[in-house]
Q: What sequence folds into this?
């Protein structure tokens, strides 16, 4: 599945996105975040406090319980600060 | 149908206003909000990052919500991205309606929702060389929830 | 100190906006409201009468009230008088502040008070030849009293 | 004292203003309106319903109990409808 990172999540992980193979137990945003946190020390640091991170599935805001599939584009980022 | 734009270039309020009102005689009220970059605490520049595939879609949804709640004859949202220096305009919201309360309320609503529901992130660069990501403000969430 | 003008000529929103913001980097928010003449029910023109000796003074008092209630960096009120045709702008209110809620609220407040506390009277002329004085609306009094 | 009329008050009375001699019993806006109503049939018509008329003394809004003197400029008009 396609993962994208923005703002300080992108900076902490050191890349704007990556293609990952979804393990079977990863079925929603919450389990996906816990899985991503295991990929590297930088991922672990970025996802250390999941409460500070927001997500979108296929360009719509999503919450921890929302389901993800292999074909989804999932993005992680801090709370938005535009305007 | 709202006009939505996400761009690096500055916007032209007079041209955007004319586009909403030209040739019409049913508009009694036009409200606008322009957000500008302030030079607080030695700020040298603000860098606006966004989620390109999502941004215009998120803005269009916010505009559609305003159009569902108020009888607008038109609505424009333009948000800049990239590097902006103090004094530069960042965002423009325009609302047109036959009556003033609809235009004014929709304009305030659009700004409140845009601050909390559109995928933009601000990074502040200071004259000292220090930089930091702007943190979301509790007041902005509270303002968005009042609608 | 607010800029107040009562005039027959149209106003230039871009120039008025530039006058409020030029050379400043402490303004984060600029709100505006423009009231326009609508062509309701066969309206041919609207004639705006006022009380010249009182008008600017009344507008200045309303602006001073806004400046006392919100931390504005600037404020402009321009009201046209004379004969205005459908589509023509009638009134412009601009507010500038470091923060958006102050600019937006002060802009709405200025319009509400201006509608009920400034000595202007509108006479509507219809394409049929009929004319009538616009009656004060209860909603306008209610809107003014919420502040 | 100097009296000014605006909008339909002006139209009903047929003039934009007039200089009047203030009778002794005319000491406030209320008594002034009742006095003006006696000056002519047009005045009487214009002031027939005092509730529909607003006033200003020396360019400040005033109410029925506000005092008037010989040197005041007093204006009468309908509720305002600008903006």
A:
């Amino acid at each position: 599945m396609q993962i994208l990172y923005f703002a300080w999540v992108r900076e902490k992980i050191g890349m704007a996105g990556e293609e990952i193979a979804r393990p079977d137990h990863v079925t929603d945003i919450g389990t996906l975040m816990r899985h991503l946190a295991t990929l590297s020390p930088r991922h672990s640091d970025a996802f250390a406090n999941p409460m500070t991170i927001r997500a979108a599935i296929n360009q719509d805001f999503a919450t921890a319980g929302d389901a993800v599939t292999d074909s989804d584009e999932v993005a992680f980022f801090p709370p938005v600060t535009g305007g | 149908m709202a006009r939505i734009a996400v761009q690096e270039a500055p916007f032209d309020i007079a041209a955007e206003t004319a586009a909403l009102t030209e040739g019409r005689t049913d508009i009694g009220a036009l409200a606008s909000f322009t957000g500008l970059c302030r030079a607080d605490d030695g700020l040298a520049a603000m860098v606006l990052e966004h989620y390109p595939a999502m941004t215009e879609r998120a803005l269009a949804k916010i505009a559609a919500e305003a159009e569902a709640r108020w009888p607008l004859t038109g609505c424009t949202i333009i948000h800049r991205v990239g590097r902006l220096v103090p004094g530069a305009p960042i965002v423009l919201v325009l609302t047109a309606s036959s009556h003033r309360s609809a235009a004014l309320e929709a304009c305030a609503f659009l700004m409140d929702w845009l601050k909390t529901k559109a995928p933009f992130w601000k990074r502040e660069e200071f004259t000292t060389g220090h930089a930091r990501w702007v943190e979301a403000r509790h007041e902005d969430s509270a303002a968005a929830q009042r609608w």
